[in-house]
Amino acid sequence: MPVECPRCHSENNDGSRFCNNCAAPLGPAGMEAPSLTKTLETPIQVMRPGTVIAGKYRIVDEVGSGGMGIVYKAEDLKLKRMVALKFLPPHLMDSPELKERFLFEAQAAASLSHPNICVIHEVGQSGEHPYMAMEYVEGETLRDKIHKGPLKSEEALVIIGQVASGLAEAHHKGIIHRDIKSANIMVTGKGQAKVMDFGLAKLRGGSSLTRTQTTIGTVAYMSPEQARGLDLDPRTDIWSLGVVLYEMLAGKLPFRGDHDQAVIHQIVHNEPEPLKKARPDVPPGLEEIVGQALAKKPADRYQSMEELHEDLEAVAEGLKPLRARPRRAARRILGIKAVYLYGALPAVLALLIGLNVGGSRDQLLGRAAPAIRLAVLPFENLSGDPQQDYFGDGITQEMIAQLGRLHPETLSVIARTSVMRYKKTNAPIDEIGRELNVDYVLEGSAQREGTRVRITADLIKVRGQSQLWSDSIEREMSDILTLQNEVSQKLAGALALKLLPAEQARLASARPVNPEAYEAYLRGSYLWANVMTPEDLDTAEKYFGLALAKDPSYAPAYAGRAWVWIVRNQIGFVSPEEARPKAKAAALRAIELDENFAGAHEALALVRGGMDWDWNAAWGSWRRSLELNPNVASAQGAYANFLTTVGHGEEALIHSKRAVELDPFNPLVQCWHAVVLYYLRRYDEAIAAAREALRIQPDFSFATSTLWLILHEKKGMEKESFEAVKDFARVTYTDPRIEEALDRGYAYGGYTEAMKRGAEALIARLPETFCVPSDIANFFVMAGEKEKAMEWLEKGFEIHDPILPYLGLPYFDGVRSDPRFQNILRRMKLPVGDKK
Question: What whole-number distance in Å separates Cα of residue 643 and Cα of residue 529?
Answer without folding.
Answer: 25
